[in-house]
């Protein structure tokens, strides 16, 4: 896994788990994409790690392929941060300045 996000919408009583993984290796792009999707579909759900007391019910699984190419060199040169604009670069954590009284 490259990342795992836990999404929570308390008003709707919904929890979402978004996982991101790298593609499978291979010379044929179509074959590598197909194997990547299959590998994700066959992985055990991360939902199993949530407390059973929540009484969760899996409603759907939207496993899909999203191609994202990060371009840090281009970003430094003033170019686009991503070849896939809907997968933006994550912001750095920020903490507001605090004053001691």
Descriptive notes:
With about 100 residues, the protein is α+β, with helices and mostly antiparallel strands. It has a domain at about 5-50 and about 60-75. The chain has two helices and two strands; from the N terminus they run ββαα. The chain has helices at about 30-40, 70-75; strands spanning about 5-10, 15-20. It has a two-stranded antiparallel sheet. A hairpin with a 4-residue loop joins β1 (about 5-10) and β2. The chain is flat. The mean pLDDT is about 75.
Write a brief caption for the model:
By secondary structure, the protein is α+β, with helices and mostly antiparallel strands. The protein is 19% helix and 14% strand. It has a domain at 3-51 and 62-76.
Secondary-structure blueprint:
Elements: E1 3-9, E2 14-20, H1 29-42, H2 72-76
Antiparallel strand pairs: 1-2
- Give the helix proportion (percent range): 10-25%
The number of distinct β-strands equals: 2
Strand order of the largest sheet: 1-2
The CA-CA distance between the termini, in Å, is: 44 Å
Helix count, DSSP H or I runs of 4 or more residues: 2
How much of the polypeptide forms β-strand, as a percent range?
A: 5-15%
Please describe the biggest sheet, giving its number of strands, its sense, and whether it closes into a barrel: 2 strands, antiparallel
Task: Spell out the helices and strands N to C.
Answer: EEHH
Q: What is the CA-based Rg, rounded?
A: 18 Å
Task: Give the class from helix and strand content and strand pairing.
Answer: alpha+beta
Mean pLDDT across the residues is 77
List segments where confidence is low: pLDDT < 50 over at least 5 consecutive residues. Answer: none
Note the overall shape: flat
């Amino acid at each position: 896994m490259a990342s795992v996000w836990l999404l929570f919408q308390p008003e709707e009583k919904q929890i979402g788990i978004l996982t991101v993984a790298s593609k499978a290796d291979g010379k044929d792009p179509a074959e590598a994409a197909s194997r990547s999707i299959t590998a994700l579909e066959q992985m055990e759900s991360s939902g199993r790690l949530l407390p059973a007391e929540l009484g969760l019910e899996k409603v759907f699984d939207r496993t899909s392929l999203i191609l994202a190419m990060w371009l840090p060199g281009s970003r430094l040169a003033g170019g686009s941060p991503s070849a896939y604009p809907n997968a933006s670069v994550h912001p750095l954590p920020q903490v507001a300045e605090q004053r001691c009284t």
